[in-house]
Specification:
By secondary structure, this protein is an alpha/beta fold. It has a single domain, classed as SGNH hydrolase (Rossmann fold), CATH 3.40.50.1110. The chain contains 8 helices and 7 strands.
């Protein structure tokens, strides 16, 4: 009998797939390339920071879990945290890391197998934003290693990808079209995704 795998994807507009004319984003494409039959929920919301995600996480995720199932959580945020507004970043990096740690710790307590996808770059936000986001992504990766949670880095790979940057600049300056989301999908699939899915959860 196959496992009942239920995955909640929670995060920001990149999780939601904003900008994709096919309305699949990277989440939909990853699921299409996943051989196992999974039940998935996209809980991405545009402009959400780590604070927003932490605030709503469990009230949205809990109703989508099932006792006895292989319940999982994919977390992706950070790009909005490092945006500058009125001369300061929206969310202090240390606070963002605390928010991620809180979600991961709660996931462990709830026996939910977690995976973190690092923050994509916001191209029109400039070099300063890219530096901040890259540094935050490195710190997220270190936090995940401490907790033995898989982390998939996306920031630098997408910042140097011509398809991603071209589509973003042809659009709203932050979100790509279908080609850019395909690039992000490829990063996720060629990193840890298939291994993570194949390994039984808690």
């Amino acid at each position: 009998m196959s496992r009942d795998i239920r995955i909640s994807f929670i995060g920001d507009s990149f999780v939601q797939g904003i900008g994709d004319p096919e309305h699949r984003g990277w989440v939909g494409r990853v699921l299409q390339a996943t051989p196992r039959n999974v039940t998935a929920f996209n809980l991405g919301i545009r402009r959400n920071s780590s604070e927003d995600v932490l605030r709503r996480c469990w009230q949205e995720v809990e109703p989508r879990t099932l006792p006895g199932a292989d319940n999982r959580l994919v977390i992706s945020f950070g790009s909005n945290d490092t945006i500058e507004e009125d001369g300061k970043v929206r969310i202090d990096p240390a606070r963002c890391l605390d928010n991620l740690a809180s979600i991961l710790d709660e996931s462990e307590q709830r026996a939910m197998t977690a995976l973190v996808v690092g923050p994509p770059p916001v191209i029109d936000a400039g070099e300063g934003h890219l530096r901040r986001t890259s540094k935050l992504a490195d710190e997220m990766a270190a936090l995940c290693r401490q907790r033995q949670v898989p982390f998939i880095a996306t920031t630098q790979g997408l910042a140097s990808d011509p398809t991603w940057t071209r589509e973003v600049m042809a659009g709203d300056g932050a979100h790509p079209g279908s080609g850019g989301y395909t690039k992000l999908t490829d990063i996720v699939l060629t990193s840890l995704w298939h291994e993570w899915i194949a390994h039984p959860g808690h």
